[in-house]
UniProtKB/TrEMBL annotation:
It comes from Trapa incisa. PANTHER family: N-ALPHA-ACETYLTRANSFERASE, N-ALPHA-ACETYLTRANSFERASE 50. Residues 9-158 form the N-acetyltransferase domain. This is N-acetyltransferase domain-containing protein. Gene3D superfamilies: 3.40.630.30. GO terms for molecular function: N-acetyltransferase activity.
Amino acid sequence: MGAGREPSISLDGVRDKNVMQLKKLNTALFPIRYNDKYYSDAISSGDFTKLAYYNDICVGSIACRLEKKEGGGIRVYIMTLGVLAPYRGLGIGTKLLNHVIDLCFKQNISEMYLHVQTNNEDAINFYKKFGFEITDTIKNYYTNINPPDCFVLTKYTSQSQVQK
């Protein structure tokens, strides 16, 4: 029997011409409707926001915002990371997150963080595999979903702050 073609996972930047794909993914993936500022932040983050394609089908994305830290420097806020349910477990989310982690190392960005709903154990466990730690709990962070509370998960990427 002939060898089947390996499925390919590729990443592409988000630009004005393809931002609709990010909007469609977010509608399918998240219980929140994102405003125009979210999409302008995503586009302006450059390489930190990517669409993921599985055999040329858009199935996931990571959208980040670059923030100035007090005292100088930049940190990355992961606004969203999601993969459509039929494509989970194929390494797509891992590829998206590793892309952003690698960019942080290359650009000497020492901190990245995100919010996760407190009952989203799959997401919490996923991020912990990459060295994220729960650093805060925010009550009533979300307005229209239950539970309304979230955890802040943070990863420090500078060598001096990496915790073993």
